[in-house]
Amino acid sequence: MTDKKELSFEEAMSELERVVEQLEQGDVPLEKAISMFQEGMALSKQCHEKLEKVEKQMDQILHEDGEMELLSFQEDE
Fold first, then answer.
1. Which NCBIfam families does its entry note (predicted)?
2. CA distance 48 to 71
């Protein structure tokens, strides 16, 4: 992936899986592997950012009266 077009979450995950599969095969030359690793890290970051955005959107609950409220959820430990 050489262009920096905005991918959907699903497209980015699919690309990331493709990169990981190729790297796991182990027959990629070192310089190509480094380039693919960088691509994978960029895709991983893109997926993470999209998940964070969705998480923030999920924190906003629409009330019956149409008002939005920002809620914070904490995990139980």
1. PRK00977.1-3, PRK14063.1, xseB
2. 21
Sign of torsion over alpha carbons 58, 61, 62, 64: positive
Strand partners, 61: 69
Q: Residue 52 corresponds to which amino acid?
A: E
Residues written for the chain: 77
Question: Which pLDDT tens digit goes with each residue over 7-38?
Answer: 999 999 999 999 999 999 989 999 999 999 99
**Which pair of tokens denotes residue 38?**
């960088």
pTM of the model: 0.71
* C-beta pairs of 64-70 under 8 Å, 24+ apart in sequence: none
Which letter does DSSP use for residue 59 in this model? Answer: T
